[in-house]
Design a protein that fits this description.
It contains twelve helices and eleven strands. Helix 5 links the parallel strand 7 and strand 8.
């Protein structure tokens, strides 16, 4: 294995207490706070509650300790999806993004050897999102994290082209993360909103980007999808078939889905060795990046042994999945 390649976690979330306090200074609608019950915390934002919010999400010392424990050299920090705030007034959302991006930039400056960072942007206002992306990159961040939908609107909306154009011009990657997922009227029980809703919404996002012609208009746009790409890697053949037998899928897309497979990167969170091996076999080891979804319980607590145990790839490919691919995506 190439020992000089650092192990980089592309998918890790942060919302420190200092950031919560700053957000609390602008509006009660975007004020996160921790409610303690014994030794556990619930994250509360207005009328939203996330029980058992892990300490690593808001405690930097715990985070670094967990990184050392699992052998992760660097995390790419991004906000948790609860603080996208796409449903808020755009100018309020700009303030929330600036506060979070400023704090991530401070962490990068204080711990330059341990972290990279993705910016939050107010995607409900693409012009403002493009401006904030450029500002955040100027602060030292390395790309952006966005949602797989914009308050229920798919990512092929024409007004989003201004944001895609800016990301392309800056040559920075965009990490896409599900939130506010589709079909919530049927996913209320059994934690299905996460178990099924998250990968479903990612699949909708990828299909929209393909069939909406976004990938044709921005041929160098860098996209990375969390949770192993949702259901898309395992059902792209269905999209391919539909493109050839129906008129609707190729109204805007210049090519069939097969021709866009090399445009996507995915993290390793599949929760199935067979699925991860398939992902690597179909898309190539260069398109798969280490991800943990730290600090949340649906992520990978100890990600490196999973990659190291894959027998179908070389040691060099394993090293690239654990860090080399992320370094290239981040232009490092």
């Amino acid at each position: 294995m190439t020992s000089s390649i650092q192990r980089i976690d592309i998918h890790a979330h942060v919302l420190e207490e200092s950031t919560m306090k700053l957000l609390g200074g602008i509006s009660p609608l975007v004020t996160p706070k921790l409610e303690w019950v014994g030794d556990t915390t619930t994250l509360v934002i207005h009328d939203f509650k996330y029980p058992l919010f892990p300490r690593g999400g808001w405690d930097l010392e715990r985070r670094i300790g967990d990184m050392d424990r699992t052998g992760v050299h660097r995390q790419v920090l991004s906000v948790p999806p609860f603080t996208f705030f796409y449903d808020q007034d755009p100018h309020l959302a700009v303030e929330t993004c600036q506060i979070q991006n400023n704090r991530i930039a401070e962490i990068l400056a204080q711990h330059s050897e341990r972290f990279f960072g993705f910016a939050a942007v107010p995607l409900q206002a693409p012009e403002l999102a493009a401006t904030e992306l450029e500002r955040a990159i100027g602060l030292g961040l390395h790309g952006a994290e966005i949602c797989t939908n914009v308050a229920g609107r798919n990512l092929d909306e024409p007004e989003l082209d201004e944001f895609w154009a800016k990301a392309t011009l800056l040559d920075v990657p965009i990490l896409l993360h599900p939130h506010n997922v589709a079909a919530m009227d049927r996913l209320g029980k059994y934690y299905l909103n996460n178990l099924i809703g998250n990968p479903l919404d990612t699949t909708i996002a990828i299909a929209s980007l393909i069939f909406g012609g976004v990938l044709d208009r921005f041929p160098t746009l860098k996209l990375c999808f969390v949770h192993g790409g949702g259901y898309f890697p395992y059902q792209w053949g269905r999209l391919e078939h539909g493109y050839h037998v129906r008129t609707e899928p190729h109204i805007n897309a210049a090519k069939p889905p097969r021709e866009y497979l090399d445009r996507f990167s995915f993290d390793t969170i599949t929760h199935s060795m067979g699925a991860l091996e398939y992902l690597i076999r179909v898309f190539g080891s260069s398109r798969v990046l280490l991800g943990t979804d730290y600090p949340f319980d649906m992520g990978l607590d100890d990600p490196l042994p999973i990659v190291q145990s894959i027998t179908s790839i070389t040691e060099n490919e394993k090293a690239n999945i654990m860090g080399g691919n992320a370094a290239r995506l981040l232009n490092r």
